[in-house]
Amino acid sequence: MKHQLFIFSFTIITGFCLGQDKTSKPAFSYPGNSIFIELAGNAVFYGSLNYERKFLQKNFFYLTGRTGIGYGGGSLLAINVLSVPIIVNGIFQIYHSVALEVGIGVSFMQIGRTRGQSPYDKWTYENDVVPTGIAGLRIQAKNGFLFRADFTPYITDLGKIKTADRFYPSFGISFGYSFGRKKN
Q1: Residue among 90, 86, 71 nearest 129 (CA)
Q2: d(CA 34, CA 145)
Q3: Domain tally, the chain
Q4: Are 41 and 169 in contact (CB under 8 A)?
Q5: Cα distances (angstroms) measured from residue 68 to each of 10, 54, 57, 101, 179
Q6: Domain encompassing residue 141
Q7: Domain containing residue 105: CATH number
């Protein structure tokens, strides 16, 4: 009787052990490249055109790098800003096509100002390196469509305007397309 109980217990326990998958893999793997337009966001004012590349994938975590170019301002605002954001993101896939993303980086800015009211007045230019971050929601459809809604703060004396508050909250919305999917 003890021998039969031992064999029965051993069979049940080993059956459960063999039934477990060694690693958990996402049901949907994100593509390796993305191109998107971000309205407002890390580039300030109007937005930017961006390229993103996936460097690392580990189960439900992705490490990506992105760069872009953006422009904002104009003669009516008496300021022009050309920006190039460079950001490293960590993407945490939470359900198929939905993910949370957080990142940190810098935005290289060239800031132009005019001293007068006329668009023909002389412009002065200065360069600034602005620390920035990102935290938000990412939706990546299987057909390649990409949507992002992010909180994108930056810390700066933008244009060397001395104020007590150097933290500038900003938000961005992105639409784009992803490609280069690897087969699971």
Answers
A1: 86
A2: 9
A3: 1
A4: no
A5: 59, 15, 22, 17, 17
A6: 33-178
A7: 2.40.160.20
